[in-house]
Amino acid sequence: MLDHPIETAGLVTRELRTGERDGAPTRIAVARREYATTPDELWDALTDPARIPRWFLPITGELRVGGRYALEGNASGTVESCDAPRGFAITWEMMGAPSWLTVTLSPTAGGTELELVHEAHVPEEFWGVYGPGAVGIGWDGALMGLGLHLASGASVTGAEAEAFPFTDEGRAFYRAAADGWTDAAIAAGEDADTMRAAGDGAYAFYTTAPGS
Fold first, then answer.
1. HSE on the CB side for 211, CA within 13 Å?
2. Which end of the chain is less congested by CB atoms within 10 angstroms, N or C?
3. Torsion angle, alpha carbons of 41, 47, 49, 52, to 10
């Protein structure tokens, strides 16, 4: 599925910030990756309900401002804004907990940069166990799948996606991604020892097969 997992993980630039919503602190993960395609093509891959399952998950709902969407077996939410082909903002709701996702596309000399900003209220005890993995590392897999789809036009099957984290390539990819988010957290001023341990926790969460 992935020939160069460490190099692919390295295509993402990661940043951690803090913020506030509704009077409560938030953690903000920022991921950026450049794709060798046009903004229009990247926008189509991100927003066409027929294409989204080819690199991410089956989606239902109304993909318009104010509409509700649902990703099969994952998150649901509301489309808050849409400015084709420059970006969109949605809520990201899982297990009753809302968070906020903004995607921005910018033309570059080599194609188009995608910036993904995910903001969430993260309990401190959860942050201590998983660190940036609580808001960041899961997006690395999505950005990888999007890149594979754009490069080949092929679909990533559900079975392939589910099995990938438990392969040698998957473990190498998520190890590199976890280390990247750990470095971003330390650069943002988080305690280095705590974040390294949390990075190990996030890596184990994504790469330990059920029942292992």
1. 0
2. C
3. 70
Domain assignments of the chain as residue spans, ordered by start: 5-206
Is 17's pLDDT higher than 70?
yes
CA distance 100 to 115: 14
3-state secondary structure of 90: strand
Please report which confidence band the pLDDT of residue 212 belongs to, taking 50, 70 and 90 as the band edges.
low
- The pLDDT tens digits of the residues spanning 69-79 come to 999 999 999 99
Give the span between the Cα atoms of 21 and 211, in whole angstroms: 38
From the number of C-beta atoms within 10 Å of its C-beta (0-12, 13-18, 19+), residue 141 rates as buried
Per-position b or e across 149-183, b if 16+ CB within 10 A of its CB = bbeeeeebeeeebeebbeeebbbbbbbbbbbbbbb
